[in-house]
Amino acid sequence: MRHIAIIGSGPAGYYSAEAAQKKFGEDVAVDIIDRLPVPFGLIRTGVAPDHQSIKAVSRRYEKTNLGDNVRFVGNVTVGDQVSVAELQDLYDAVVLATGAPNDRVLDIPGSDLPGVIGSAAFVGWYNGHPDFKDLAPPLDATSVAIIGNGNVALDVARILAKTEDEFAGSDIVGHALDALKDSKVEKITFLGRRGPHQIAMTPKELGELGQLERAMPHVAAEDFPDIGDDAMLEPGMRKSVTHLRDFLTLDSEGTDKPVKISFDFFAMPVEIQGDGKVEKMIVEKTALDKDLRSQGTGERYELDCQMVVSCIGYRTPPIEGVPYEHGRGRFANSEGRILPGLYCVGWARRGPSGTIGTNKPDGFAIVDAIAEDIGAGGRKEGRAGLDRLFAERGVEAVTFRDWKKIEEAEIARAREGSPREKFTDIADMIAARD
Ligand code: NAP
Q: How far, in Å, from the CA of 183 to the mean position of ligand 1?
């Protein structure tokens, strides 16, 4: 029997468990440990609540949990109730599938002013992550600056711009829907330090921005290269840039939509100013060097804004004793191998890039590596040893069956048309399973 512990129950964790089932059949026991009492990580608390079709992949992860050889071990914090070193003693392979939940630091003066929010917190808030339920973003702001030109920036802008009706069918949590209903936002500005050809926004998500009920995207024609240059872009990127160019047409047709979403390209935030809270951002115009990196030009302008959301990427939190690559914000690894018996997968392995589906080949590849390293059979004690440790320490983990009870309660308390109303308090989650 091979014993595998996976830390993190998001897509990377579940695809790895599925791969282990397929590779080893009944000859494997996998424990998926998560610090929350609820599974699926980024699917539950990262993917936007109005993107239910993406969230539907959790049904596939559920199937993985149906066999006895995969176990969900929720409400257990590795590093607190059990250490990585202890897991390494107990399991033939320990896989870190911890994602990249920390924001990359926005290192400019004024970034600590109230009203400056990292995307992890803002996304966690509207998705009901227990860590961020009390965020209370200042939605009395009329102007919001969003730093970054990636898909997270797009999610944040769309959520800020939607009407209550546009959230029908979503599982946005009640506290966020109520707060957004009363939002005063009239202007949302994306600050991208490079140009239209360097955005990290994918076409489908960018196209949605042109379809919003009360908001309208705005781009400036002078920011675009010659249209002929679009031919050199790879097809997905070309589609995204075509959407941006379509926004030019939309804009010239005029609109009476009250919320304006502006793309400020070649725009690098250099300082955030305000008296006790955000009032404005100082932005430096940039130009691209020969390697397409942004360089400040010295020309500056001011952007009035009362809220800033920084969407500039994420980092994996380091774990004591586990080699870490500080520059890239992920575990130091070679094809997912960190140390003998210790592996990483997904964002913890490669950094925060790619779609949910990118984690599938990652999960299957890590299990191939584990199979190669373990050989014919495992030697460790596995879950029996973990259960003994938990009994000694009085740790009561949340099981998958418990999760199904929590889920049932969330479905029962959903507002009309919504798939669920998530619990945002860990105590309420635990109470729902008891
Ligand atoms: P991302 O795609 O890496 O985009 C980060 C953005 O921040 C880039 O535009 C980057 O500009 C900019 N940036 C980085 N450092 C900056 C700085 N110091 N100052 C100003 N701008 C800075 O990251 P993300 O948006 O967080 O997304 C993470 C991953 O999740 C991506 O793979 C994304 O596609 C995926 N995702 C997918 C969906 C979806 O499919 N619906 C939704 C959400 C997220 P440069 O290019 O100049 O570095």
A: 25
Ligand 1 pocket check: which of 151, 240, 289 to mutate, most ligand atoms within 8 Å of Cβ? 151
Please enumerate in sequence order all residues whose Cβ is within 8 A of that of 151, keeping only pairs 6 or more positions apart, or say none: 200, 201, 202, 205
Q: Tens of pLDDT along 208-256?
A: 999 999 999 999 999 999 999 999 999 999 999 999 999 998 776 767 8
Do 400 and 255 have their domain in common? Answer: no
Answer yes or no: is the C-beta of 193 below 6 A from any ligand 1 atom: yes
Low-confidence ranges of the chain (pLDDT < 70): 252, 254
In short, whether 202's Cβ falls inside 6 Å of ligand 1 is: yes
Give me the CATH number covering residue 121: 3.50.50.60
Helices (H), 228-330: 235-252
CATH of the domain at 323: 3.40.50.720
Q: Same domain for 381 and 298?
A: no
pLDDT of the residue at 58: 94
Residue whose CA is closest, atom 23 of ligand 1? Answer: 313
User: Cα of 196 to ligand 1 centre, how many Å?
Assistant: 14
Q: What pLDDT, on the 0 to 100 scale, is given for residue 255?
A: 74
Q: Which domain holds residue 328?
A: 2-101+316-432
375, 409: one domain:
yes
358 lines ligand 1 (CB under 6 A): no
Cα pseudo-dihedral 295, 245, 212, 125, rounded to 10: -20
Q: Taking the model in full, what pTM does it have? A: 0.97
Q: Yes or no: say if 186 and 140 are a contact pair by the CB < 8 Å rule.
A: no
Q: Give DSSP secondary structure letters for 281-299.
A: EEEEEEEE-TTS-EEEEEE
From 44, 123, 193, the mutation candidate for ligand 1 (largest count of ligand atoms within 8 A of CB) is 193
* Atom 31 of ligand 1: nearest residue by CA position: 353
Closest CA to 380 of 98, 28, 18: 28
